[in-house]
Amino acid sequence: MRFVLHLIEIKKGGRCLITVIEYSRDFFREVSIEEIDKLDVVINKSKVTWIRISDLKDRETFGKLAEKFKIHPLTIEDILNVDQRPKIEEFQNYTYIVLKMFKFDKSSKELSSRQLNLILGDGLLISIEEEKSKVVDNVLEWVKASRGIVRSMDADYLLYLLMDVVIDGYFIVLEEIEDEIDVLEDELTSNPSPSLLHMIHKLKRQLLQFSKNMWPLREVVGTLERSGQRFVNPQTTPYFRDLYDHTIRVIESVETLQAILSDMLDVYFSAVSNKMNEVMKMLTMIATIFMPLSFIAGIYGMNFEYMPELKWVWGYPLTLSIMLLIGVTMILYFKRKKWI
Q1: Looking at the structure, do residues 11 and 121 belong to the same domain, yes or no?
Q2: Last residue of a domain, one of 254, 270, 286
Q3: What pTM was estimated for this model as a whole?
Q4: Which residues, in sequence order, are bridge partners of residue 114?
Q5: Residues 6 or more apart from 243 whose CB is under 8 A from it?
Q6: Which of 164, 265, 270 is CA-nearest to residue 205?
Q7: Does residue 180 sit in the same domain as residue 296?
Q8: Domain count, the chain
Q9: Do residue 247 and residue 286 come from a single domain?
Q10: 121 pairs with which residues across the strands?
Q11: Sequence-separated (6 or more) residues with CB below 8 Å from residue 58
């Protein structure tokens, strides 16, 4: 059996570079054409057709694509609106799937996402990327190198491979976020600064954004792994079941990191509160030490005419000695109580 893979990429100039790759277990051939109108393919069960669109700038391409493969206008609208959440929609002649590809920038500590649209039909898979992605490039190289069983499976297995590399990318993103959390934990114990609090809140928002896409993704994969799907062969169902387990692991990892950040917030506020308590304790002890000294100074600061000690030669040094003795005695008492 010979399988055919068709690759479409949209260049920035708006023209399509269409690369037709024919291959089997021991045969590979690549042919390029320039316009989507020249794409002449026959979809049947003896081959797999993969149409890859790696840019959304040429909207005319989607009109021609929709007309050629009978894609519903609502699907085209969802493809061009890149603010979709992961979802799956079943139509008469295809199943439409939306995924999110995430990337974490270590320098800016920002989490960005790109939309990946997948249209699965009978012997057909159309992948549409918001921007060209290395993740999809890796799957293409996998097919070219004939790794695994990809060349002996149908389009639903190709769908599985694309979803698998996307979900595996989630683990990489979560590991990078976890590394940032480890750094914050070290700083939290040494110097709980306001900038640290800002970073904790920022990571919480990033994980919240991540989590909002994980739960719908669970439903998408769960729908695919259930038997009875029109475009998913029973022999591919176990792969989607394994993918469902990966999705659960991602959700659990996200929840764990969210719990860690929540605990870090509690630790931060406790550390700030303890630091404030230490400052207040020190100020209170200083005020307590100077309270009797201020009392003595206040007495002899009164401007009464008849104060016997004012005329005494040793009055001033004796008063200072008593004040010094009181201060030292109170400091020794605080140390004995382990207050300082």
Answers
A1: yes
A2: 270
A3: 0.78
A4: 101
A5: 160, 163, 164, 167, 221, 224, 225
A6: 265
A7: no
A8: 2
A9: no
A10: 124
A11: 10, 14, 15, 16
Q: Which two tokens stand for residue 139?
A: 């799957």
Q: How far apart are CA 58 and CA 108, in angstroms?
A: 31
Looking at 239, 255, 270, the residue that finishes a domain is: 270
Do 319 and 232 share a domain, yes or no? no
CB atoms within 10 A of CB 306: 6
Q: Can you give the CATH number for the domain in which 323 is found?
A: 1.20.58.340
Q: Whole-number mean pLDDT of the chain?
A: 83
Q: Order of strands across the sheet with 3-10?
A: 3-10, 16-24, 27-33
Whether residues 142 and 256 share a domain: the answer is yes
The whole domain housing 122 covers 3-270
Tokens in use for 83? 């603010």
Could you tell me if 78 and 170 lie in one domain? Answer: yes
pLDDT tens for residues 223-276?
Answer: 998 866 788 888 999 999 999 999 999 999 999 999 999 998 888 888 788 888
First-to-last alpha carbon distance for the chain, in angstroms, is 84
For residues 56 and 187, state if they share a domain: yes
pLDDT tens-digit readout, 144-178: 888 888 878 888 898 999 999 999 999 999 999 99
Considering the domain architecture, whether residues 284 and 215 belong to the same structural domain is answered as: no
